[in-house]
Design goal:
The complex is a heterodimer of chains A (119) and B (113).
Chain A (H helix, E strand, L loop, with lengths): L2 E3 L4 E5 L4 E3 L2 E3 L5 E8 L6 E7 L7 E2 L2 E6 L4 E6 L8 E9 L11 E2 L3 E6 L1
Parallel strand pairs in A: 2-12
Antiparallel strand pairs in A: 1-4, 3-9, 5-6, 5-10, 7-8, 8-9, 10-11, 10-12
Chain B lengths: L4 E3 L2 E4 L5 E6 L6 E7 L6 E7 L2 E4 L8 E4 L6 E5 L8 E8 L7 E2 L3 E5 L1
Parallel strand pairs in B: 2-11
Antiparallel strand pairs in B: 1-3, 3-8, 4-5, 4-9, 5-6, 7-8, 9-10, 9-11
Classes of the chains: A mainly beta (119), B mainly beta (113).
Chain lengths: 119, 113
Amino acid sequence: AQTVTQSQPEMSVQEAETVTLSCTYDTSENNYYLFWYKQPPSRQMILVIRQEAYKQQNATENRFSVNFQKAAKSFSLKISDSQLGDTAMYFCAFMRSWGSGGGADGLTFGKGTHLIIQP
Amino acid sequence: DTGVSQNPRHKITKRGQNVTFRCDPISEHNRLYWYRQTLGQGPEFLTYFQNEAQLEKSRLLSDRFSAERPKGSFSTLEIQRTEQGDSAMYLCAAGRDSYNEQFFGPGTRLTVL
């Protein structure tokens, strides 16, 4: 079974600052996907960024980037130039690759980090 | 908008009653997942459909929980004889072959009195 740990229940930064959210995971799988999802207050969960474990290059999406350390089983999210609209719960999630019989397992989520961007 | 809708958005029921939730993904989404999210926790996977076939249901929380996707389009999640511990947000997510992203609906918040 897989586990995902987010050790920061809540973080608060000033607008325009850079913030890093931590995530570690445990798995015996070699092929898998990692995700960061954002859940704004009372709104739908949306995908922020994804990383395929076989790719060494860290994924980036505009102001969002990850630091993927496969050996350390670490997958942190960096938000640059933070904006008020970034205020939300952020969830780190794991999924086994389809080829390993995953996908049908669904996503395994961490408990989330509540990120507050202060004006 | 993720293209996944859920109804109702809120449901208040009395303990012992049965409830049914509906999820409508867009037609391209042949994969469909149900999750439960309790306060302060991340979503917890319940069950998975590929088209109309329910390929994973061992994670349903008890035999009071059941799900269907009769024509491979919309899906329903039913909870029989609800208990106060069933109070939670129930999320539906959908995706399609060759894509690992799941698109989430807004959820149905269940309150059992």
